[in-house]
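Q: My hope is that you can spare some time for a protein that puzzles me. Underneath my words sits a plain record pairing an amino acid chain with its backbone structure tokens. Those tokens are not coordinates but codes from a learned vocabulary of shapes. Thank you; the sequence and its tokens follow:
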Amino acid sequence: MTRRKKIYEGKAKILYEGPEPGTLIQYFKDDATAFNAQKKAVLEGKGVINNRISEYIMTRLNAIGVQNHFIRRLNLREQLIKEVEIVPLEVVVRNIAAGSIATRLGLTEGQPLPRSIIEFYYKDDKLGDPMVSEEHITAFNWAATQEIDDMMAMALRVNDYLSGLFGGVGITLVDFKIEFGRVYEGDFSRIILADEISPDSCRLWDSTTNEKLDKDRFRRDLGNVIESYTEVARRLGIMKEMPTVIQGGVH
């Protein structure tokens, strides 16, 4: 990988130039960060699990018509993706009160929301990814009105699909964050799903015990982060392809 040109490095992934035009290689790191990277650690095997879970979900979303940047997994830590122009927004879908919405609105964590709620956050680490409205998005030209509509429609489709997928294996989808990018075809562009979908970007609770199986285990010093991520992969039926080095210790 060192021979390939690095395009971008984020907190959890690195993007390298791809083998052909219009492609990139997305490398999943073991780095874990929280609270806008104020808390950091290296969790051995995290990148491997997230690569595999994200591949599994993106492949299935493609199959139901939710177009995304995933092309194929290359190895344990890398996948080939379409190059997109990232929309500078994080799109969060919430089903149950947890995290910032519970704090912000004085809700009890675990309280079901009246309906699924979509929130937009401006992607800027220096500003702490502030929450923004559709007015901000169109005024500052981060996305057009039609693009906002497309992102919201896709976000709800992803929510419906993932709620069923995880619900079927005894996991409650509390909320998740996704990102979108533009792909250009001549003078026209369209919005597709990008980034990743993994326990790093979703809140996932055991449906029976409400035990957290996601990044909150790292944020809140609950321990067993890798074991919980591995448990998600095991329930989705993708453990058989996971390296044995990270298969132990799930309770």
User: Anything to note?
Assistant: Residues 88 and 123 are 5 Å apart (CA to CA). The longest helix spans residues 145-167.
